[in-house]
Amino acid sequence: MSLNIIQLNKVEEERKLNFLEEIIENDLKTGKVDSILTRFPPEPNGYLHLGHAKSLCINFGLAQKYGGKTNLRYDDTNPTKEDTEYVDSIKEDIKWLGFQWDKELYASDYFDQLYEWAEQLIERGLAYVDDQTQEEISKGRGTVETPGKESPWRGRSVEENLKLFREMRDGKYADGEKVLRAKIDMAHPNMFFRDPILYRIKHAHHHRTGDKWCIYPMYDFTHGQCDSIEHITHSICTLEFDVHRPLYDWFIETLGIYPSHQYEFARLNLTYTLMSKRKLLELVQKGLVAGWDDPRMPTLCGVRRRGYTPEGLKLFCDKIGVSKRDQLMDIQLLEWCVRQDLNARSNRYMVVQDPLKLTIINYPEGQVEWFDCTLNPAEPEGATRKVPFSRELYIERADFMEDAPKKFFRLKPDGEVRLKYTYIIKCEEVVKDADGNITELRCTYDPSTRPGAGEWRSVKGTIHWVSTAHARELEIRNYDRLFTLADMSQVPEDKDYKDFLNPDSLVLARGWAEPALLDDASGIAVQFERTGYYIKDADSTPDNPVFNRTATLKDSYKPE
After folding, report:
1. Which of 258, 245, 256 is nearest to 120 (CA)?
2. What sign for the dihedral angle of Cα 549, 349, 374, 518?
């Protein structure tokens, strides 16, 4: 079992129950329910993002903890925005996070039943067909301070309403010409009770039902009834739906069906991040990012391509907890969690991104030594890789300074450092071109300082390197945050959210790597020693390997 999983289990044992766990444990203790059944109900109109990861961890996590199950149910009631592309991507993301649903279901599975219930409401005088425009309906609802105005069509007879509703179903009317509304209370203090729309006309091809329907139910007339049909015991959603809950309950009680109940938790808000599907779609459509899976995107396919791990995301969701109060979470905590997981599991390799040639003048020409180097320091007795060492090397240009300050412990004229895993070297000569630019360092090595042989002596500096004759050239994509504004919910009125796109969110570079890197088959991001975590990208070819930066090696952030 990996270190991060052990830590996660320890956290689980030590922390107090959150409010959802308290509710579930009480429901099981009192016999209100015999077993737990939750659901994850995405609308297939986009790709899942980090906010969905929190919901997935809550819904699947609670079911797993209490021996229950979770259904995957697509809320596919808006055919103009939905597509099988999104359906497939959602399933892939859920599996990648390590969750498995019990049943794969769709709101469209229940269209016939929802239609029957709508007719029942009409027959009981609790629903009517309205001819008003959407603008007239919105205006007629009034405000929080003032009651709404009843529709002139509210008094239609049951017979006329049934006739018109069936004609709507049969395609007699155009989009927007009529809607079906519940007849509740136009003066109700909860605006959602002011005769909510139950069905609207949409002559659009549905990804599953084809052209069978041209009327589609609204969210509030779909969600609770679908939960009830499936006997969902705990319908868990984000806090913005708390005002919908009374209407959720009203439909279930009025129809006399299984009493599912809704519970709300605070959604995930993350610094420097947008999680609006509409705005993310705009970024994709306008080419401001390379697609839904651009590693800068907060989509699950995006962070997966960036190298984030399911274990890192789960650790993050566990640390932020479950509450009923909205708060802005620091993206550094997410990065810290990913780094914690990768630090325990990633293989290490040496890669130079800004090369400076270094020649060891007393090393035999043509000689090559292969050093056995540990892949992961967390497993010192584990797998190793072979690293070639030769007379001509590359080091990072930043690891040499000609006029070095006193506490500069890397290479300097007449100074010594250890080349990681190998020998101590001393800088004997600095070679420059006609413009005064440093082009080469000429050094000597001390053969007696080979690890495991001779008399050990230490120096304060250790730097990484690669053999020029063996190095493999890489394309490196150094990713950073997509936006420069910490709280993207606070975009000034005179600005557009796109004004805060970070121009340095992607910086391209070249790198020279030890050859073993290209043979890594671990499936997770590796550590470029002293630099950061990187993962091989799908754009890679044999002639041009591409690596994406997952996270920097460390920062000053420390979680509470």
Report:
1. 256
2. positive
CB-based burial of residue 30 (10 Å sphere; 0-12 exposed, 13-18 middle, 19+ buried)?
Answer: exposed
Distance CA 36, CA 69 (A): 6
Tokens of 75: 């809320």
- For residue 285 the two structure tokens come to 């459509």
Coil, helix or strand at residue 131? coil
558 catalytic, yes or no?
Answer: no
> Phi and psi of 37, rounded to 5°?
-135, 115
CA pair distance 411, 396, nearest whole angstrom:
10
Check 43, 150, 160, 440 and give the catalytic one.
43
E strand intervals along 363-451: 369-374, 384-389, 392-396, 416-419, 424-432, 438-446
Give the span between the Cα atoms of 269 and 557, in whole angstroms.
18
| Distance in angstroms (rounded) separating the CA atoms of residues 266 and 322 | 7
Three-state DSSP at 426 gives strand
| Total count of residues recorded for the chain | 560
Name the residue type at position 458. Answer: S
pLDDT number for residue 559 = 65
Predicted TM-score (pTM) of the model is 0.90
| Structure token pair of residue 240 | 């913005």
Q: Are 535 and 524 in contact (CB under 8 A)?
A: yes
- Residue 130's identity, in one-letter code, is D
The answer for 454, left when phi > 0, alpha when psi is -120 to 50, beta otherwise, is left
| 418 in active site | no
Q: Residue 129: which residues within 8 A CB-CB, separation 6 or more?
A: 153, 156, 160, 161, 164, 165, 168, 178, 179, 180, 181
Catalytic residue among 91, 267, 426, 481: 267
Q: Which of 54, 245, 277, 296 is the catalytic position?
A: 277
Task: Give strand pairing partners of 179.
Answer: 130, 200
Express each pLDDT in 419-468 by its tens digit: 999 999 999 999 999 999 999 999 999 999 998 876 778 899 999 999 99
**How would you classify the pairing of strands 546-552 and 532-536?**
antiparallel
- Tokens at 426, concatenated: 């001393």
pLDDT digits over 368-387, tens only?
A: 999 999 999 888 888 999 99
User: Which pair of tokens denotes residue 381?
Assistant: 């007795």
CA dihedral 455, 460, 463, 467 (to 10 degrees): -30
* Integer Cα distance of 45 and 75 in angstroms: 9
Higher pLDDT, 517 or 559: 517
Q: CB atoms < 10 A from the CB of 43, how many?
A: 17
Residue 491 one-letter amino acid: V
Among 459, 438, 439, 455, CA closest to 447: 455
Residue ranges of the alpha helices (H) in 507-550? none
| Chain Cα centroid distance, residue 208 | 27
CA atoms within 13 A on the CB side of 199: 27
- Alpha-helical regions (H) of 449-506: none
Q: Is 277 a catalytic residue?
A: yes
